[in-house]
Write a structure and sequence with these properties.
heterodimer; A: 498 residues; mainly alpha; 20 helices; 2 strands; B: 490 residues; two-stranded antiparallel ribbon
Chain lengths: 498, 490
């Protein structure tokens, strides 16, 4: 054990990478699934051990290949990255049982092994972005995860999936390019790619180079914002979510945008924020304005979507607005609210997309009108949907309430009380789009299609029930969500230059 | 049997309805067993609540310390006199209402009865939890649970009309609670650093009188269940629900949860002295007085029996709000009394409306001519309930009207005093006219012969609650004793 423990940061990325390589050699979908299941089961233990180490002993620095930072690539785990690693691993293992039947029903048998290979590669990329302490290495992992994602989306049954994947490819590539240009500027200024090193050196740049620093900030922020679908850079997301295979949508909604948000927080708080007084620039204000636009416009669009996958996708754009709102507030309570919503939203949105995936599995449609009376035919599925939907609205007793509580207090601490009614008003729009699904499912008589439906098999049911239960559980016990997010944001906010 | 420790009785009272709610679907296939579960749960709940009465009268405050959810958010329960009274009203009337529900639901052959009884039990559980909440977060949580659990009951018929009514119900209650109530709670927390209900309030010296009036407005309108105009539309809309729902939930549990929350906030968050010293309550006195008269006037124009009763409720709830707005111990006393007496009186009236519907399928006031001859027990109970609502002796309503009038006069609010008097006259007009039609008008020829009294399961409950109206007249002293202990500690 002692031989393994110091290398956990590397294993966090290497295990899924090896899994991906092995899966590429497999032909049978079932074997690939078993392999993925095994990898998914190992990952939470690694992230859990890392989180525990960080909680007890502070940040971990791991020199990849023994090359000491800042020259070599450093893997750096602090509370924030451990928190996000844990999220990805836990979501991965909870939702993987659902994949077996869902993927089997939506992907050709000959491509299933390939599908799992791509998934593991995507997972590798996401974990890599989160754990690496190197700006360029983050770009590499960003591309790894993005390329895998393009393939995964393109495997959707609907032919429009190809267009959606292509759209995402173009926009994703632009985002990655902007990001790498920004990193280039940073390298130009500091001669370093190590994030901690860059932050220290940035603090020492001459005042006449501030324009370059701001340019780098702008490139990186916009590039990452494209990946995290910050309004109005979200246009790729609804199509990608709507036409990707059901299970891919679940995974992307819960993890991919969240990792991009992590990267934004990392740059704003651990790199630029440490070196430059961002309060003097309108960064927070711009982010808050865009967040509000997302919370209202995207929610409003969701109300009028009849394809429920698209509806939930627009809802994601809106909910990402809550997270970035907390980032924009940039104070203890506000950032806690943003960070905790990363986890809370991941769980509830995964539950919602899983429930929808189960409905697609049973009746082959995700259109609102086709769901009449399905609440009586798929009671457990719709119960999970209802509970997670309440979380989206932010009713007390769900984790969504906790997020909103912290965000509202953060807004008041900042003196922007007007944001409080804005947060609540956006919740009310969520209430409308969730409510109309529930009304359709519960208060209508079943149609011929829905009358034959029933709850899916246990392997599909269990993940969504676990995540719906988590939505309620983390509404009452917030030690592992808001508790850690609070500590992480405390460290981040304290580090900010004034 | 040994005495139950008060803290244990509290915990058991809190969970009993939820256990009942979980068991009801288990027995869904056997209606008689299923209804037995409801009745037993209701009886068990009343037993546990009664165990708390003695200690509370003795000055104790049984509590369950609960656990911390997040900084500032604690789930905790504590029994104080007002909550005790509310829990007592809700749990005792639930038993009567359950008997009535059985008669009504079976008499009308309603569908989806298992879900109906399960949601009912959850709603009662939420009501009890709300009554015993120790802080604003706990109260808010159960407030929302109550809203959500009653939504399926309002939508019970699943018709277009029921869906629309339920939509208005949910949108207005959730909307006001999210947009006004929750921001008020957050603001309170940021200013006071706590959300605990504390004798004397927690906001003393924390904000100016103007801001205090605004905060009070956020609470009053945010607590939509209190149906203070103009946030009252949900109540008439909710009348699409089966009558047992209108009776227990929309005359007792839900609406009383609203006014109860307002009184709690006034007494334990603002503090009576803080509020009156700042003068932040004056506007609410006038608003409540206006509501009392206006809602009574609207009731007069409604031809649908349940709609008329709904507007009567809006008016009667404003009495409770008026007592809270006067913000003196006497005013609060009046609010508490009004909660009890209106609950008993109005549930009687709704029971009668439902009994009439079961027996005759009539819903309009003008169709009730001569009904007193064929349904004498029902209409007699309706008369008693009406007289109590109006405030005439020997019925409970007398004391609540008396106390409120006294409180208004004491504090020099002559407008409020006038509103109370005018409203009583209007009550006579819109309630006794129904009784008059039933007893003194001739029935439509040929129509009456087939009509007879509603099933026994309907008639017994409505007689029981009519009897309670009398009991509350002679037993008002007990209610007063209980409420007095609210201010005894100061």
């Amino acid at each position: 054990m002692n031989a393994v423990l110091p290398h956990l940061p590397a294993l966090q990325v290497v295990v899924p990478l090896i899994g991906a390589i092995l899966a590429a050699f497999l032909r049978r979908g079932n074997f690939a699934f078993t392999l993925t299941l095994a990898v998914s089961a190992i990952l939470p233990f690694i992230s859990g051990a890392l989180l525990w180490q960080v909680l007890t002993g502070g940040p971990i620095s791991y020199a990849m290949g023994g090359w000491a930072p800042p020259i070599g690539i450093e893997y750096r785990v602090d509370l924030l990255s451990a928190f996000v690693l844990m999220l990805i691993s836990v979501v991965g293992v909870v939702i993987i049982p659902f994949a077996h039947r869902s993927v089997a029903s939506e992907i050709d048998a000959s491509k299933q092994a390939w599908f799992y290979c791509m998934y593991l590669l995507c997972l590798t990329g996401l974990l890599g972005i989160t754990i690496t302490g190197d700006a360029f290495n983050a770009f590499v992992f960003l591309e790894v995860s993005s390329l895998a994602t393009y393939v995964l989306i393109a495997m959707g049954r609907d032919r429009r999936a190809l267009l959606a994947a292509f759209q995402y490819l173009i926009i994703g590539t632009i985002g990655a390019t902007l990001y790498v240009i920004g990193v280039g500027f940073l390298y130009l200024l500091t001669g370093s790619l190590n994030m901690v090193d860059v932050a220290q050196r940035l603090a020492a740049v001459e005042p006449d180079q501030m324009r370059t620093v701001i340019t780098a900030l702008a490139f990186i922020t916009v590039g990452v914002s494209l990946k995290l679908a910050l309004f109005p850079l979200h246009v790729w997301l609804p199509n990608a979510y709507a036409y990707a295979p059901s299970w891919v949508t679940v995974f992307l909604a819960a993890t991919a945008t969240k990792v991009a948000i992590y990267l934004l927080v990392r740059y704003l708080f651990s790199i630029f924020g440490v070196a430059v007084n961002l309060q003097a620039l309108p960064v927070g204000e711009i982010i808050i304005a865009l967040s509000l636009a997302a919370m209202f416009i995207a929610s409003f669009v969701a109300v009028f979507e009849t394809n429920l996958k698209r509806m939930l996708a627009y809802s994601s754009v809106a909910q990402i607005g809550y997270i970035t709102l907390g980032i924009g507030l940039a104070n203890q309570a506000g950032l806690t609210g943003g960070l905790v919503h990363i986890v809370n939203h991941a769980f509830m949105k995964a539950a919602l997309f899983l429930a929808l995936g189960a409905i697609v599995y049973r009746i082959g449609s995700a259109r609102l009108g086709d769901l009449a009376g399905i609440g009586r035919k798929m009671p457990l599925t719709m119960a999970a949907f209802a509970v997670a939907g309440l979380g989206l609205i932010g009713t007390p007793g769900t984790s969504g309430f906790i997020s909103k509580w912290f965000l509202a207090i953060g807004a008041l601490d900042r003196g922007w009380w007007i944001l409080v009614p804005a947060i609540m008003a956006s919740s009310m729009i969520a209430f409308v789009y969730v409510g109309r699904v529930l009304e359709m499912a519960y208060l209508r008589e079943p149609s011929a299609e829905t009358a034959r439906a029933s709850d899916p098999p246990l392997s599909m049911l269990l993940p969504m029930l676990v995540l719906a239960a988590a939505t309620v559980y983390f509404g009452f016990d917030t030690e592992w969500t808001a508790g850690i997010a609070g500590k992480a944001s405390q460290a981040l906010v304290q580090g900010l230059a004034r | 049997m040994t005495m139950l420790a008060p803290n244990d009785a509290l915990l058991l009272a809190l969970i009993a309805p939820f256990i009942g709610a979980a068991l009801i679907p288990v027995f869904g296939r056997w209606p008689n067993l299923r209804e037995t579960v409801t009745l037993v749960t209701a009886a068990v709940l009343l037993f546990f609540v009664l165990q708390l009465l003695g200690p509370v009268l003795g000055g104790a405050r049984p509590e369950w310390a609960g656990f911390s959810v997040a900084p500032g958010l604690t789930l905790a329960f504590q029994v104080e006199p007002l909550g005790m009274l509310f829990a007592l009203i809700a749990s005792s009337l639930w038993i009567v209402n359950s008997v009535y529900s059985i008669g009504y639901m079976r008499g009308n052959d309603e569908p989806r009865q298992t879900g109906f009884y399960a949601c009912f039990a959850i709603a009662l559980g939420a009501t009890i939890g709300l009554a015993f909440a120790k802080n604003l977060f706990t109260l808010f949580l159960l407030y929302e649970v109550l809203t959500l659990s009653t939504y399926p009951l309002v939508a019970h018929k699943h018709s277009v009309e029921a869906r629309r009514g339920a939509r208005i119900y949910l949108a207005l209650l959730i909307g006001t609670s999210m947009l006004l109530f929750l921001p008020a709670i957050i603001a309170t927390y940021v200013m006071a650093g706590t959300l605990d209900f504390t004798p004397g309030g927690i906001l003393g010296g924390k904000l100016g009188s103007g801001a205090m009036a605004v905060l009070l407005a956020l609470y009053v309108f945010g607590i939509g269940k209190a149906a203070v105009m103009p946030i009252h539309f949900w109540l008439p809309a909710a009348m699409v629900a089966p009558t047992p729902v209108s009776a227990l939930l929309h005359a007792v549990a839900v609406v009383k949860a609203g006014v109860f929350s307002i009184v709690k906030v006034v007494v334990y968050i603002f503090g009576l002295d803080t509020l009156t010293a700042a003068g932040a309550n004056v506007w609410l006195v006038y608003l409540a007085s206006g509501c009392i008269v206006l809602a009574s006037l609207i009731a007069l124009t409604r031809g649908n029996l349940k709609a008329r009763l709904a507007y009567s409720t809006v008016s009667q709830l404003a009495y409770v709000v008026l007592g809270a707005a006067i913000a003196t111990p006497l005013g609060i006393m009046g609010s508490g009394m009004q909660m009890a007496t209106h609950a008993v009186g109005k549930i009687t009236l709704f029971f009668c409306a439902g009994a009439i519907y079961v027996a005759t399928h009539k819903t309009e006031v003008k169709e009730l001519d001569g009904l007193g001859r064929t349904m004498p027990v029902t209409m007699a109970a309706f008369l008693i309930g009406s007289l109590s609502i109006i405030g005439l002796p020997p019925f409970g309503g007398t004391w609540s009207k008396w106390t409120l009038a006294l409180a208004a006069a004491d504090s020099g609010y002559l407008v409020a005093l006038g509103a109370l008097m005018i409203s009583s006259l209007l009550n006579i007009a819109y309630l006794l006219s129904i009784v008059g039609r039933a007893f003194f008008f001739a029935p439509e020829p040929g129509a009456a012969s087939a009509i007879r009294e509603a099933p026994l399961a309907c008639v017994i409950p409505l007689s029981a609650t009519a009897g309670l109206c009398v009991v509350l007249f002679f037993g008002a002293g007990q209610v007063e004793n209980l409420l007095t202990t609210m201010f005894a500690s100061r």
